[in-house]
Amino acid sequence: ESRLAHLAGEFAGIVLVSVPEPQVQVLIGALRELEAGGLNFTIALGSPPKPEDGYEMLTLDLLGHDRPGIVRDVTQTLTKLGVNIEAFTSFIESAPFTGEAMFRASLRLRVPEHIAAEDVRQTLEKLADEIMVDLRTGAEA
User: Fold this and answer.
1) Sign for the pseudo-dihedral over CA of 134, 65, 4, 82
2) With contact defined as beta carbons under 8 Å apart, do 91 and 63 qualify?
3) How far apart are CA 117 and CA 96, in angstroms?
4) Residues in Cβ contact with 130 at an 8 Å cutoff, skipping those fewer than 6 apart
5) Nearest-10 Cα torsion for 108, 60, 58, 11
């Protein structure tokens, strides 16, 4: 798996690599050699994902006037609900007619089975009213 992006003149990525245990140090050594050529790495050893039951995946799209605190407000609201953010992408765009800075975000959410998707929607709609953000939630395909 990978997530790659070009932001502010820099290219960054997160890559999940799976190798047999005896090859881990060989891979790390090879990556360290690439650093001499100007690449920078942060290496983290993870564990295999555990199969999880009892959750629903949702997508959330936000659009609203850009202002400080939107990301904080949304993420804190989701955390209080017990919802996990699996992926979060955001950017600023110009409104079609006014040219105003608009904040747009797309999130993939893991919602525990004891939390109704409708409760998540209603809570976020209340938040949307407070911070003037339009949102659309839907079951992930």
Assistant:
1) negative
2) no
3) 32
4) 73
5) -10
How many Cα atoms within 13 Å fall on the side-chain side of residue 59? Answer: 9
pTM of structure: 0.70
- 120 burial level (CB within 10 Å; 0-12, 13-18, 19+): buried
- For residue range 46-102, what is the model confidence (pLDDT) as tens digits? 876 666 678 888 888 888 888 888 899 989 999 999 999 999 999 999 999 999 999
- The single-letter code of the amino acid at 108 is R
Residue 137 banded pLDDT, cuts 50, 70, 90 = low
CA-only gyration radius of the chain, Å: 19
The amino acid sitting at 21 is E
One DSSP character per residue, 46-65 reads --PPPP--SEEEEEEEEEEE
Q: State yes or no: pLDDT of 2 exceeds 90.
A: no
- Number of alpha carbons in the 13 Å side-chain half-sphere of residue 132: 7
